[in-house]
Amino acid sequence: MKILVINCGSSSVKYRLFDLKDKKRYKQVACGIVEKVGQKTSLFSHQTEDKELFKNKRVKAPDYKSAIRLIIAILTSDKRYKILESKKEIDAIGHRVVHGAEEFKESTLIDKKVIDSIKRNIKLAPLHNPPNLAGILAAKEMFPDLPQVAVFDTAFHQTIPEYAYLYGLPYRYYRKYNIRRYGFHGTSHRYVALKAQEVLNKPLNKLKLITCHLGNGCSITAIKNGKSVDTSMGFTPLEGLLMGTRCGDIDPAILLYIMNKEGLNTTQMNNLLNKKSGLKGLSGISNDMRDILKAIKRNDRLAKVAFDVFCYRIKKYIGAYAAIMEGVDAIIFTAGIGENVKQVRDRIEKAIKSLFGKKVKTLVIATDEELLIAQDTYEIVSKAKK
């Protein structure tokens, strides 16, 4: 079954084409990205399983529909690069959708009801759900008879109990505005948890795991017996760990104080918290951990402070999540920093060993959200055909 995975971001469309024999046997046929969607000139990169065919080719992609048309054309029509004889060879399409609110606890076939729900949830993810929806509508128009599946970042965290997802606000705000902890990066956390059971040779429903997705955006999840029981991101991706440009946990009264002192409106405050804080804000250098580490070598004090705060927050959450699960079998590092920055892992692992000894394993597992989307799509489409 050939499955096209589409991930529409705020100004880009990533794609990967998989050929799945079953959920475990698969081959990546092609992948790429159209960047700067909606700008005067967009950039298109495309590669097959083992060869980069072109990078940052200048193209016209004024909207998501145009970007997806370029992708389909390069896969099926372009004589130099095509790998499919026609678009009829694509059996299904899987879409990443950031927010499914409380309506979706698992991935699902896309129909009008699902599309309407994604539209309703734009209020909860105004930056992410609109491009996700635009990609779905464009693909539906191009492939009206093809089964398509939505895989929600929030779905994995719908097992979090009420006492963990409610905030200490008047309950009416939960009922009226759906204010609660939703969590994000759920597809990544689920993927590495599934891989961890293979590495540990123990069923997921017998494991207590703490998964650390550490990239420009960061989150930690407590997974007990295969289910998410708590996660660091909350109503939005702003809560939790220190991140590249996001502040993470903060006393909410600080917002009011700064707004009053600086004369900021809500839009300016939102920009400060999401785009000018975190590693970038503390260090005054960069949101990139590689730049922070280079600055530390130059004895830059604030770079070291930013690094220390980053690691401290991770240790703090790991200790809390080990407590709520009453133990932990393994701690997993994934995403850009988690997979590639040994200095961060070493700092965390030192604390883990002093707390748990050698009983708790630490694993580095490369995340692959698109593959999990393809696997979910395969499973759902296969069941629908029976």
CATH class descriptor of the largest domain: Alpha Beta
Tally of discrete structural domains: 2
- Compute the separation of the termini in Å: 15 Å
Name the beta content range: 15-25%
Instruction: Give the total of beta strands.
Output: 13
Q: Under CATH, the topology of the largest domain is which?
A: Nucleotidyltransferase, domain 5
- The whole-number mean of residue pLDDT values reads 94
Helix and strand composition category: alpha/beta
Low-confidence stretches: none
Shape designation:
globular
**How many DSSP helices?**
14
Compact summary:
It is built from 14 helices and 13 strands. It is α/β, with parallel strands linked by helices and 386 residues long.
Layout of helices and strands, plus pairs?
Layout: E1 2-8, E2 12-20, E3 26-35, E4 42-48, E5 52-59, H1 64-76, E6 92-97, E7 108-109, H2 112-120, H3 129-142, E8 148-152, H4 162-165, H5 171-177, H6 186-200, E9 208-214, E10 218-224, E11 227-231, H7 252-262, H8 266-275, H9 278-283, H10 289-297, H11 301-324, E12 330-334, H12 335-340, H13 342-356, E13 361-364, H14 369-385
Parallel strand pairs: 1-6, 6-8, 9-12, 12-13
Antiparallel strand pairs: 1-2, 2-3, 3-4, 4-5, 7-8, 9-10, 10-11
